[in-house]
């Protein structure tokens, strides 16, 4: 699917990191090994699966290439044995999660443009690719998705996807567009957490 | 997709009204502007997206024509600034919601017949188109979907979709079928709220 | 879709049993007849629909053949009138549910292989077919899906799907593979409930 081996490896990294976040939620909820693996797979693969179902790119990449599933399962096994270590590493995990967010937003938006979507829907689908896994993870344990509460999370994905759309319209090289989009989304996310940025609420709510 | 410009405008109206309902739920839950926009888009577009994914009509209309997304986002922005006014207008909002329900049930059922579904599955998919957005909205904030609790809501959609199936079997004109279906679903819904109709519960439950 | 009439009838049986489980949850939650039918349809058909959307086999079998929908609705009507009897029959219902689990895991995995998926993703999709309906049922009433809590439920589906993959790799006859897979998943499930098997939790969680 991806033109770039780099893109593919970034995709696996994003899958791994998101799967880690799913497995950690499962451990915190006291689920057993199967619950942990289910949440790993859901958090790691659901975003891309939703994107591919909406684009009609079926079966989704995450099912056609078994390495995605293996990556998500490996993350679940790592968490099963190493969750105490990972819980203490919450800053590095957040940073990796921000990287996954950027990678998925960019690859989701690029694939949507490739399938002929207009800029605005392509941005939406990029954001959905980036936040869909985490939302599925939270909904499966009956929590309001963090993306709805944690303010500027979706905005970071929007920044990355918007750069992809703008760069493509300007005819820039796909590789540089991808790099710029990932860096922008990643940077925005990390800085927003570090500085505690918050988004406005409805006046009088 | 729609043969009728009228149908298209009704579809936008339905999207707008459902998106309003999503945004109002987000404001009530104290979500920020992004949460409001996410729930607007989910409530306005999810029903049609689910329909199109099930029919294999991908990418869904709601992603192919950017006006759907713009309509849903506009509704979110209106609610962000005007939610206090809209909360007081709950009767007109209910009436518009009933119109959206009828429009989506009819257009969902017509599209399903066009894709070769049998009458019964076409009715199911019409109903799913009509109630899918609201169900997604409620599930995202971890509430039991109103359609499961608010009794005759799904029945109104079923009435509209059934008229489409019956009218099509009788070979009536598509326009008149659509008008009859929307009016029936709308009327049924408004009257059922006005008269407080309730559906039966299981004996002894 | 199925090569075997036997397979088709088993599929209807699985649909019926899962729909029963959905309707019983609806009655317990005090939902009305429409809520009961919605949960019947969701629990009975969602697993296969998710499978078919992911495979790109649209419209899904459950919408193309109206007998699936009729089966699910019939189960809902049975529960509406007979829920007190069915609540007392919880052992036979559990046994039938185990049969449905095996049937759906096997047919989901066989269809995935037919669509060219690799063994590991085919097992995943078989399991998703088997547990998707129940998960949708639980999410609609805002409960953590039983499959995440009830330990070895997903494992029984995995056993059945793995036998399908192994048997297909060995070139055995499709019929015997299906029988072996269903019997293994069914047997594993029934024995695991009977003996109270539990899966390991993360060390120190």
Description:
The structure is a homotrimer of 205-residue chains. Chain A is mostly helical and 205 residues long. Chain A has one domain. Helices cover 80% and strands 0% of the residues of chain A. Chain A is built from 9 helices and no strands. In chain A, helix 2 crosses helix 4. Chain A starts with a helix and ends in a 10-residue tail after the last helix. The mean pLDDT of chain A is 91. Chains A and B meet through helix 2, helix 6 and helix 7 of A and helix 1, helix 2, helix 3 and helix 4 of B.
Task: Note the topology.
Three copies of one chain form a homotrimer.
Chain A: H1 5-28, H2 33-55, H3 61-64, H4 66-88, H5 90-114, H6 119-140, H7 146-149, H8 153-169, H9 174-195
Helix pairs in contact in A: 1-2, 1-4, 1-5, 1-6, 2-4, 2-6, 5-6, 5-8, 5-9, 6-8, 8-9
């Amino acid at each position: 699917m991806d033109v770039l081996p780099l893109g593919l490896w970034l995709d696996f990294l994003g899958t791994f990191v998101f799967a880690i976040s799913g497995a950690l939620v499962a451990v915190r909820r006291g689920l057993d090994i199967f619950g942990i693996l289910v949440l790993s797979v859901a958090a790691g693969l659901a975003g891309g699966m939703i994107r591919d179902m909406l684009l009609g790119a079926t079966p989704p990449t995450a099912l056609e290439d078994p390495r995605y599933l293996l990556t998500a399962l490996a993350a679940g096994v790592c968490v099963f044995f190493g969750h105490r270590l990972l819980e203490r590493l919450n800053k590095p995990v957040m940073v990796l999660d921000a990287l996954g967010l950027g990678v998925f937003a960019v690859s989701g938006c690029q694939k949507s443009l490739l399938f002929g979507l207009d800029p605005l829907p392509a941005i939406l689908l990029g954001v959905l690719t980036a936040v869909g896994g985490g939302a599925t993870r939270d909904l499966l344990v009956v929590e309001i998705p963090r993306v709805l509460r944690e303010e500027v999370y979706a905005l970071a994905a929007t920044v990355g996807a918007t750069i992809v759309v703008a760069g493509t319209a300007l005819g820039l090289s796909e590789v540089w567009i991808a790099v710029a989009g990932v860096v922008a989304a990643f940077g925005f996310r990390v800085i927003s957490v570090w500085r505690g940025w918050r988004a406005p609420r409805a006046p009088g709510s």
